[in-house]
Amino acid sequence: MLKHLGPYIPAIGLGVTQIMGYGTLMYAYAVLLPHMAEDLSLTLSTVFGVLSLGLFFGGLASPVAGMLVDRFGGRYVMTIGSIVAAVGLTSLSLVEGVIGLFLAILLVEGAGRFVLYNVAFASVARLDNPVPAKKSISIITLFGGVASTIFWPLTLALYNGLGWQSTWVVMGVALGVVCVPIHFWALRGPQKDHDAPQSRNDDDWPELTGQARMRGMLWMVLSFVFTGYIMGAIMSLWVVNVQDLGHSAGIAALAGAVIGPFKTVGRGFEMLVSRNMYPLFTYFLSLALMFSGFAVLLILGFTLPGVIIAAALYGMGDGIKTIAGGTLPLALFGAKGYGARLGWISFVQLGVNASAPFVFAWITQVYGGWYSFAAMTLCLLAGLFTYFFIPDPRRHSIAPA
Questions:
Q1: I want to staple 389 with a disulfide (CB 3.0 to 4.6 A). Which of 97, 219, 251, 317 is the partner?
Q2: What one-character DSSP code corresponds to residue 24?
Q3: Phi and psi (nearest 5°) for 221?
């Protein structure tokens, strides 16, 4: 059994580190930053503004991380990244003001670009492994989907028992103890030579070439930006907007808690049927589910069943979209330069999406939660519209490489 499990060890190992990575480097902020703001005599808007700046400038590291994986593989890139991330998390326990908070978050989020999904996807694609990269990406995201479900209550429990300073120390130590050895050992082994003329992607998908390649990149990135723009707003405004639909804070939180597990459900479904799903269809399925969730929310969101069903549909779509974010660029443009390509896409998305919480919060404040959700739905419609302009390489005449 262990012999058959061997080729899956990199994906399983990276799946475990994504739980730790997203749990400590992303989800812990929602619990700890408000308490830090109170103790540091800062406003809530100030600390979340600092977080937005840290995410934006930390995103500058994404293309660098991708290019390093393309050149050297992911073993040392992710190992060193997890060491720096652990140090950065620990440094958050020492901040005494807004400047220190910004520098610590900048260190954490810059290091995070070397250990989170995009680098993990590029690392398994770079390995010379019999498991197709598409399947490995599905396995990694299947694990990562439970990060919020585990770490929101865990972080709150640690804070209640230890305070925010000690919680950051525990987070940093745990990240280092778990992730450093996994990244070092799970990613060892020979690497593919994507510069070789015969190199193709795992499922022998044809690549876009010429003008179709340029159009494909433009429309894919635009679609990713539109559909990704709502993610930060959902995390920060879900409870407020659902309350504005007429629900209590408890019901809003309950419905929000449905999103995380259904991300995993969606990823599990995708993994079961992925052999028969081309990434363009996977991406369309994710957008259709997300749009269906928002449609239910706008029409039936004032009822308890409506808001729960909406959260479940959105969660499934968002979970599948994470997989498509890794597999679609691989299918359309091939394995050569894959890491750097994901890095640049991530940088563009982070740069644009940093404004989303502020934009949708303004809409909520001025017009109300229903209109804020309606604006998010329009973003998804824009993502669907641009999706239909992405060329399908299977329907184009492909010149030999």
A1: 219
A2: I
A3: -65, -40
Q: How many CB atoms lie within 10 A of CB 130?
A: 9
**Which among 237, 251, 260 has a CA at the least distance from the CA of 371?**
237
User: What does the pLDDT look like over 68-123, one tens digit per residue?
Assistant: 988 888 899 999 999 999 999 999 999 988 999 999 999 998 998 999 988 998 89
* Cβ contact 255:300 at 8 Å: no
Closest to 54 (Cα-Cα) out of 11, 22, 25: 25
Tokens of 1: 């059994």
**Number of neighbours of residue 110 by Cβ within 10 angstroms:** 23
- Burial track 336-371 (b if 16+ CB lie within 10 A, e otherwise): bbbbbbbbbbbbbbbbbbbebbeebbebbeeeebbb
Sign of the dihedral defined by the CA atoms of residues 119, 122, 126, 129, in that order: positive
The per-residue pLDDT for range 233-292, each reduced to its tens digit, is: 787 678 788 888 998 877 887 887 788 889 888 888 887 776 667 889 999 999 999 999
Q: Which domains does the chain have, with CATH numbers?
A: 2-186 (1.20.1250.20), 210-393 (1.20.1250.20)
DSSP string, 91-149: HGGG--SHHHHHHHHHHHHHHHTTTSHHHHHHHHHHB--SS-HHHHHHHHHHHHTTHHH
* Integer Cα distance of 353 and 351 in angstroms: 6
